[in-house]
Amino acid sequence: MVKPHILALPFPAQGHVIPLMELSKRLVNHGFKVTFVNTDYNHKRVMNAMSETSLEDDQIRLVSIPDGLEPWEDRNDLGKVMEASQSVMCEKLEELITRINELEGDKITCVIADESFGWALEVAERMKIRRVAFWPAAAALLALAFSAPELINNGVIDNNGVPQKSQMIELAPEIPAIKTENLVWVCIGDTTTQRIIFQAICRNNQSVKLADWILCNSSNDLEPSAFTLAPEILPIGPMLASNRLVNSAGNFWEEDTTCLEWLDQQPPSSVIYIAFGSFTVFDKNQFHELALGLELSKRPFLWVVRDDIGDYSTTHAYPEGFLERIGSHGRIVSWAPQQKVLGHPSVACFLSHCGWNSTIEGVSNGVPFLCWPYFADQFLNESYVCDVWKVGLRFSRNESGIIERKEIKSKVDQLLDDEMFKGRALKLKELAMKSVMKGGQSDIMFKNFVEWVKS
Ligand code: UDP
């Protein structure tokens, strides 16, 4: 019998690479061979950020193909990434699979591609290989993408995805209602980017029909209405839980693990953990207000400040005297081992941009949230946290759109002085973990999937 050989292809962004790597690791544990395809650019970053031990431990084969962008082009420009992928990456993927199948004993038997790369499912279909779409975000977001034709028909958006007027979209009860201006393709960059992303979504809505499975890193317990609305989406998550299998493999930045020792020295449930994922950038004023808000809160904090968080010089990034004043009361790192941080008993709350991975990581660790969304799906996730699960609070902005220091202090106090938030967060954690534990719905779904890959 042919040993299943899976080719896994993530969208080239941190929040997509980590969960697909996690899924791949689980499949390797079931005896499958996995070839994981990053872009050349991200492959270099992943290799640089990986520790020697994870390199030795890892049984996933890491390979790469060009992303079609010039070396100096901005990889955070999602429109450019999407366009280049549809031409260059598409061709390179076909070449890679052909090469593997000609040269190696174990031919590719299954392609698992990020749902955002629907073209990869088309390549697999042309090559007569079995196909799986992987969705590393909320099921509600994919259900929303699936509803694009209906939104056009109802005159909510035009053929380019542009809202015809400001209104709330309610897909179903208990799915967060979303403002048209916060639709994922609307709040993702300039108008060209918005158009490219919307067109890609429409194409993906068609290509995803070629997939035998649409796997989603969420659970029925977390999003019952979304999975009822779009039953073709199948929950296998939340995979990124405290029992995370992959150590640092897949990170674009090297983890600073020294912050765990600093956390060990802090009182239980005292620390504010602040992280904005891999994309978010800050305007200098807002960055200062956040720093001063943390100082004002007078609680210990662990803050992830990526080297590329703003276009101001890092040496002058902080308010005058801030670093001296906070001393060892606050810790700043450029990339944290986030899973471990969120599972640490000293952490009291998570001030987060509400990327989906960060959201489910906080949920899986029973940590309440302060939500600071920026773009894409982060507003939808904020609404899950604050309105549906009620495990966090959102910030208010002033007339200039700034979240002021006193607002930060006030929400920190409100969240941490009200034990109901922590209580609900712990209940939600239990619910989330139940899904992935033996016999849980996501666990059963994953096992069925494994059997299918074997068959
Ligand atoms: N992350 C991390 N260390 C950090 C910040 C983030 O390991 O200091 C990880 C985090 O655990 C999550 C991913 O990076 O798995 C970010 O994904 P998310 O969907 O939350 O946000 P995005 O980067 O896509 O905006």
Which key terms come to mind for this protein?
18 helices; binds uridine-5'-diphosphate; Rossmann fold; 455 residues; 7-stranded parallel β-sheet; 6-stranded parallel β-sheet
Structure, described:
The chain is α/β, with parallel strands linked by helices and 455 residues long. The protein has two domains: 5-245, Rossmann fold, CATH 3.40.50; 258-432, Rossmann fold (3-Layer(aba) Sandwich). Helices cover 44% and strands 14% of the residues. The chain is built from 18 helices and 15 strands. The chain has helices at residues 14-29, 40-49, 52-57, 78-103, 118-126, 139-146, 148-153, 191-207, 224-229, 258-264, 284-297, 322-326, 338-342, 356-364, 378-388, 405-417, 419-436, 441-454, and strands at 5-9, 33-39, 61-65, 110-114, 130-135, 168-169, 178-179, 213-216, 233-235, 271-275, 301-304, 330-333, 347-352, 369-371, 392-394. The strands form three sheets. It has a seven-stranded parallel sheet, sandwiched between helices. Strands 12-11-10-13-14-15 form a six-stranded parallel sheet, sandwiched between helices. The protein has a two-stranded antiparallel sheet with strand order 6-7. Helix 4 (78-103) packs parallel to helix 5, helix 5 (118-126) packs parallel to helix 8 and helix 11 packs across helix 16. The chain is globular, with a radius of gyration of 22 Å. The relative contact order is 0.12. Bound molecules: uridine-5'-diphosphate. Uridine-5'-diphosphate (UDP) is lined by residues 13-15, 18, 240, 251, 275, 277-279, 304, 335-336, 338-339, 355-358, 361.
